[in-house]
Design goal:
- This protein has helices at 18-29, 58-68, 86-96, 122-134, 162-181, and strands at residues 4-10, 34-38, 72-77, 109-114, 145-147.
- The protein has a five-stranded parallel β-sheet, sandwiched between helices.
- Helix 1 (18-29) crosses helix 5 (162-181).
- Helix content is 37%, strand content 15%.
- It starts with a strand and ends with a helix.
- Bound molecules: ligand FNR.
Length: 183
């Protein structure tokens, strides 16, 4: 059985982030042919094209080299002021350059949006999809992953409720099939 390495990005740096909790559950529920792990993005300096020569920002080079080794990406975004978070957008921008050498090109992707709001960060979900279209990433269309009122989905021990777990398991199984189509 071929195994696929999947990079998971979480667009919230908050310690108790619900995006992170949902990402961790997706990783736990992944089928055996997916090897998923969170790739940190909070350490990346803001993208500045002036500095993007001769490895002057080693953190960008390290990030690009690392992400290149994955077969697909799974992105989780909160909604900040009706858009995606700055940290997630910065990671996309860093990975997209130098021009013509984007690490994102062709990588099969999935987008999840998670919020305490019942609106489930759905605007951020689609804002993120817009960038992924330009970055030439095939994004799984269905099932869509909108997780709203996230604070109500976990018990006191942090265990996720049964219906959300069933949904996430379906999502990550469908994503595994999606990844296979492009690798
Ligand atoms: C928010 N939040 C928010 N929620 C929403 O539904 N629409 C929005 O436009 C915003 N805007 C926004 C801006 C900023 C700066 C912050 C800090 C928060 C609420 C936010 O989506 C919510 O707190 C999520 O739970 C954040 O995700 P994590 O940190 O739990 O993963």
């Amino acid at each position: 059985m071929k195994r696929y390495k999947i990079a998971v990005f979480v667009g919230s740096l908050r310690k108790d982030s619900f995006n992170k909790k949902i990402a961790e559950n997706i990783i736990r529920l992944a089928p055996n042919n997916l090897e998923m792990e969170i790739v940190e993005i909070g350490q990346l300096p803001h993208y500045n094209e002036d500095l993007d020569t001769h490895n002057r920002v080693p953190a960008w080079t390290a990030f690009r080299n690392k992400v290149k080794t994955y077969d697909g990406v799974f992105l989780f975004t909160p909604e900040y002021n009706r858009s995606i978070s700055g940290v997630l957008k910065n990671a996309l921008d860093v990975g997209s350059r130098p021009y013509g050498k984007s690490i994102w090109n062709g990588k099969p992707a999935a987008v999840g949006s998670v919020s305490m709001s019942p609106l489930a960060a759905s605007i951020a979900n689609h804002t993120l999809r817009q960038s992924l279209v330009f970055l030439n990433m095939p994004v799984m269309q269905q099932p869509e992953i909108y997780i709203g009122s996230a604070q109500n989905l976990f018990d006191e021990e942090g265990v996720i409720d049964d219906s959300t777990e069933t949904f996430l398991k379906q999502v990550v199984t469908d994503y595994a099939n999606w990844v296979q189509k492009f690798n």
